[in-house]
Amino acid sequence: MLDNHETIGAALGRIPSGCSILTARHEERSTGLLVSWVQQAAFEPPLVSVCLKRGRPVGKLVDASKRFLLNVIGPNPTEMFKHFGKGFSLEEDAFAGLPTRATEFGMLIESCIAHLGCEVTQKVPAGDHDLYIGEVVAGGVVDGTSPYTHIRKTGFSY
């Protein structure tokens, strides 16, 4: 049956996604957040889409700078999940203990397998999230490792 809440949630949960750490910086502030709703959106220009739950502190920095950096997590996500899973306020050092370097888009986390520097082209309200479209203007691959793939039990929660 296709019309009950539980079945819809189970079906949504089967949509695979990767996980990345989205970082942003503006003036003297920077932070990062674990994100799983990231997808390539176009070839030319190269665009990605990412959703951020409305009210997350990182959204303020993305809105102010009009940029973000996606740090793609490799096949062993435990360290990144532990570090970024709880989230950070703008007053906390989100990168303490991690090998990072500052870029114009956000903090680049050295242990991630790929990085995409993006300039925001659109922001669209999407339910309880905001959908950002970013043009990829910088990027790099650290090694040929495959990214982590995430499947949820239900499409109604992370």
Can you give keywords for this protein?
alpha+beta; Pnp Oxidase, Chain A; 3 helices; 11 strands; 16% helix; globular
Query: What is the 3D shape?
Result: globular
Structural class: alpha+beta
Low-confidence stretches: none
- Tell me the series of helices and strands, N- to C-terminal: HEEEEEHEHEEEEE
Main sheet summary: 7 strands, antiparallel
Assigned CATH superfamily: Electron Transport, Fmn-binding Protein, Chain A
What Rg, in angstroms, do the CA atoms define? 15 Å
Number of domains: 1
What is the name of the CATH topology? Pnp Oxidase, Chain A
Account of the 3D structure:
- The protein has 158 residues and is of the alpha+beta class.
- The chain has a single domain (13-150), classed as Electron Transport, Fmn-binding Protein, Chain A (Pnp Oxidase, Chain A), CATH 2.30.110.
- 16% of the residues lie in helices and 43% in strands.
- The protein contains 3 helices and 11 strands.
- The protein has helices spanning 5-13, 57-65, 78-84, and strands at 17-18, 20-26, 29-35, 38-42, 47-53, 67-72, 100-102, 107-109, 114-126, 129-141, 149-150.
- It has a 7-stranded antiparallel beta sheet with strand order 3-2-6-9-10-5-4, sandwiched between helices. Strands 1-11 form a two-stranded antiparallel sheet.
- β7 (100-102) and β8 (107-109) form a beta hairpin.
- It is globular, with a radius of gyration of 15 Å.
Short description:
It contains three helices and eleven strands.
